[in-house]
Amino acid sequence: MINVVAENINIMSKYTGNAMREKDPKPIQEWAIKLTEKGADLLDLNLGPARKGGPEMMQWLVQTVQEVTDLPLFLDTTNNDAVEAGLQVYKVKQGRAVINSIMATPERMALQMPLVTKYDCDMVGLMWGPDGIPRDENERAVLLDSMMTQAAEHGIELERIWFDPIVVPVSSQQQELQGCTTFMQWLPDLAPGSKSTCGLSNVSNGSPDELRDILNQVYLCILKKCGITSAILDGFDEAIVKIAHDEEMELENLVGRIFDGEEVDTAGMSKREVDFVKTARLLFGKSLYSHSWLDL
């Protein structure tokens, strides 16, 4: 079982975004309550760049959400002042706040890691380096080492870091996705005791809407097999939440067999099982991506 970090309270959402800009608490609190009831373990509060009025908006948002739920919160914005403002008013209930995220660049680590110790919070360590998104597992490992070194210098234990490998779209970066998967297999040994997370839906970016769910669901099964401890996903998607919470173990075990190198015979399987097998093969790079992979 892994933690569900619900991504729904987002400035880009028409429903909650308008409420944030207008400081209308009702829609935001309604969703926070529903997401809690549907099994979210944490809530991601995403303000985006928050260039205008970011600190005030983040403080208001944290306080608004914490009035109706005790779940820990990811504070998600590239505006460092807004992150600190949110941390100033955050109340520890079921867990510490989490800064989402700190890039593996010298300037962002120097700017934001002091907040982790100052406010006794956790952080997402994003494998985004000086040259952008890493190309493979080896480049991710180099960034990881750099971030662990800097974290140690700031007195931040590995248990306080949620490493994010940066999931890339299988539709346009199928080969690069293998580097993300391999890195996640390495992570428990490279950073023992750390946590991990990812923006799960990135894997299906660029794919037709009707195919995105199956990609997200199967890749979550793969990441769970790699040892991931949480994922940022749609908290209203009951199917993906079930997988996160170990309620689809037959499908998860089926993907695990492919993960372990078994040539799975699909004869006699249901359509959903066959779709999972085909999609797992695609995500492992055993078949080339096309929008029609399920029909082949």
UniProtKB/TrEMBL annotation:
Belongs to the vitamin-B12 dependent methionine synthase family. This is Pterin binding enzyme. The keyword Transferase applies. One of its GO terms (cellular component) is cytosol. Residues 2-255 form the Pterin-binding domain. InterPro entries: Dihydropteroate_synth-like_sf, Met_Synthase/Corrinoid, Pterin-binding_dom. Pfam families: Pterin_bind (PF00809). GO terms for biological process: methylation; pteridine-containing compound metabolic process. The keyword Magnesium does not apply. Gene3D superfamilies: Dihydropteroate synthase-like. GO terms for molecular function: methionine synthase activity. Keywords: Methyltransferase, Transferase.
